[in-house]
Amino acid sequence: MSLPAFSFAVGERLIRSAGEITPVTEENAFEVARAKGSAVMGLIPFDPSRPAHLFVPDSMEVIDSPVPQESVELAQPVTIAGRDNLGFRRAVSTAVERMKAGQLRKIVLSRLLFAHYEPGALNLDALYDNLREQQRDAFIFSVQLPEGERGMEHSYLMGASPELIFGTEGSAFKTHPLAGSAPRIAVPDSEEDIAIGEFLMISPKDRGEHKTVIDDIRARLTPISEELNIPTAPSLLKTPQLWHLGTPISGVLKQGLNCLDGARAIHPTPAICGTPTDTAREMISELEDFDRSFFGGLVGYMDAEGNGQWALVLRCAQVDEQTAILYAGAGIVAESDPVLEHTETGTKLGSFGRALGIDTLPERKA
Known about the structure:
Number of strands: 20
Shape: globular
Helix content: 25-40%
Low-confidence stretches: none
Mean pLDDT: 93
Number of helices: 8
Largest sheet: 17 strands, antiparallel
């Protein structure tokens, strides 16, 4: 296995760590990166009160790396668990009841799928290449996790995030929040597929969910911005599996702030947590039967000048050579249907499942 501690690819541009890594905290990360002439890399948890997993390598490599032209067939798992998840549907039902009672307006609930392989059978290098080939417009990431994370001794968090949380070049910044989605169940780019996207654009449920996220981000970015440009309406963004509502936001940071400061200011957004944020986060801890850890957090890097990119940890899995634990979530509002939300999360699990070569939807009954 040749994966470095950190890899972050968009198209043919690949950023990776080189040499030994030095663990850092958020407080000293930028200072250490500047002293070494390198970069801060790693993960920020879903829960912003928990410590980040950050490090500074001896150097940061930025290379042109051709996108693989075809996927590699990987070994098949011995068992797969979690395609059907009654507990998730019950959690959605409970959340809907509480929203109708006025306790909150939105919550994001997630679930897991487990694929177990023969020892040493899962080729992680090939898996990363499959993600790059299949999700060419996404942020393809791989980060070595601390020893013992979820009981796995030498594992990586790997995925294909469609969502830029914060990126900077100088004082100029960009963020592209996504909220509201629909599965692309028709032939890609067919009339039916395009109609699905058009229906998403006029869906009151999804437009309302998206507006909640944009209003929250506007409130968080305004105090740290010299300029802030937010389109009045969302646009469509497509991945191989889903249509999304997205709003490309740009602006200029106030003097003295860097990329990580901006990312921290808007994390977690309602798109990955809910509204009100604190109430939703508490309810997530109650209703989900696992610890999210870095799922729903941030993955990325920041160089010695304070520039970088941080993406949302989505469409991902914790992997080693014999286990893959896949994550997926869905935004739940008062109008949500538990069965439909279960199907949506199954589709989202399929973004990573496709790279593994497995089916993530429940088996259809005859």
